[in-house]
Design goal:
The protein is α/β, with parallel strands linked by helices. The chain is 32% helix and 26% strand. It has six helices and seven strands; from the N terminus they run βαβαββαββαβαα. The protein starts with a strand and ends in a 6-residue tail after the last helix.
């Protein structure tokens, strides 16, 4: 690849997902305010944050392709984030039992040489089995997914919590929509394979 690639994220999950398609890339934490604006639509919110993260990192670089991403999850029209603690994780999973969560994951590819960017959003739906408190406690004691929105890791034992998953890119559920990113890279003349 002729351009340096920079991931604008401190997430170990995004780093791991990106390493599936790109061998060498730099990482730079964007350090932005992620507060949602009043009455901001969820899709607008995650797109805005992906762009702001990429732009915050672009300030430090005069060339390269910068990847920004953000994710929010919605259940019953409420945004759910990462649990604050174990009890919060139990509550989140009890509230998810028998329901479907929709994840909105944005991706932005910014060219630091001219500040042009592409941005897209990927949605992924996760339907939960009916879960008992005992199953939830067992799961949390094994996997401890306290740094994950919705209190689960789909790439791990969290799969046992689900009855169905629907979406175009399972990587978006982990935090980085690779299919959309590959399309963006292709448009910049970068072919992954």
């Amino acid at each position: 690849m002729s351009y340096p690639i920079i991931l604008a994220s401190s997430s170990p999950f995004r780093r791991e997902v990106l390493s599936k398609i790109i061998e060498k890339f730099d990482i730079c934490s964007p350090e932005i305010d992620e507060t949602r604006l009043q009455d901001e639509n969820i899709e607008v919110y995650v797109k805005r944050l992906a762009i702001e993260k990429a732009k915050a990192v672009a300030v430090k670089h005069d060339s390269g392709l910068i990847i920004g991403s953000d994710q929010s999850a919605v259940i019953d029209n409420d945004i759910i984030g990462k649990p604050k603690n174990h009890d919060d994780a139990v509550t989140q999973l009890l509230n998810s039992s028998g329901k479907t969560i929709t994840f909105y994951t944005s991706i932005c590819l910014l060219d630091a040489s001219n500040n042009s960017y592409q941005v897209a959003i990927d949605t992924f739906h996760v339907s939960f089995r009916q879960l008992s408190k005992e199953q939830i406690e067992n799961y949390l004691s094994i996997e401890k997914p306290y740094n994950c929105a919705g209190s689960f890791k789909s790439e791990g034992l969290g799969i046992a919590l689900f009855s169905k998953m629907e979406g175009t890119d399972p990587n978006s559920l982990i935090g980085l929509p690779l299919i959309k990113l590959i399309d963006m890279l292709n448009s910049k003349g970068i072919n992954i394979i």
